[in-house]
Design brief:
Blueprint lengths: L2 H92 L3 H15 L6 E5 L7 H11 L8 E7 L4 E6 L2 E6 H20 L2
Parallel strand pairs: 1-2
Antiparallel strand pairs: 1-3, 3-4
Helix pairs in contact: 1-4, 2-3
């Protein structure tokens, strides 16, 4: 064999080997590309799932925040209405006609008296609870009580009602305290409704 033929044969063998290596490399590259595309597709699916979940979580968070904001505004409106109602109630109680005010105070005092020898502290501007009123209450207390209620010299900043004092013990039956108690009960009820 001549040298030229040997060179041609070597070149042909090299070309064949190069073609075989290139074909294997192309096949390997195609296989790697397919695996990469599969992984990329899987990552895309997972990303879509995570994005949908994040969007749902965000939506739920925004809805919860909106519901809480509405609840706060609703509660603020209820409080505003309650303030108005209790302000009107205070004014109406203070401005009751004398006979109705006396009946109310008589009922409250008869319920509040414990021993019958308490002092009655009234507001600085109170004119309807006087000595005559106290005498009537003492008569109504009857024989089971001492019937020794008396007006105290001390006056307080009450807008209506009274305080019964025996020693260091005071029982506040002022209109403000009665309205505060009623308001607390109403607010507890409203809170239960709001957060039920």
């Amino acid at each position: 064999m001549e040298a030229e033929q040997v060179v041609k044969k070597i070149l042909a063998d090299a070309d064949a080997e190069a073609a075989k290596i290139k074909a294997e490399a192309d096949e390997k590259l195609a296989d790697e590309q397919r695996k990469f595309d599969e992984q990329l597709g899987e990552y895309k699916k997972q990303t879509d799932i995570l994005a949908k979940k994040a969007a749902q979580d965000k939506k739920e968070h925004l809805l919860a925040a909106a519901r809480m904001d509405i609840a706060k505004k609703f509660l603020a409106e209820k409080r505003k209405i309650i303030d108005e109602v209790f302000d009107k109630a205070r004014t109406q109680l203070q401005n009751l006609p004398d006979d109705q005010y006396s009946k109310l105070m008589t009922k409250l005092m008869l319920q509040a008296v414990e021993t019958g020898d308490e002092e009655i502290i009234i507001g600085k501007n109170e004119k309807r609870i006087d000595q005559k009123f106290v005498k009537q209450i003492n008569r109504e207390l009857g024989p089971g009580f001492k019937g020794n209620l008396r007006l105290a010299n001390e006056r307080n900043n009450l807008t209506g009602g009274f305080i019964l004092k025996r020693g260091k013990i005071k029982n506040n039956v002022s209109i403000d305290v009665l309205l505060q108690q009623a308001r607390k009960e109403l607010e507890i009820q409203l809170a239960k409704e709001l957060f039920a």
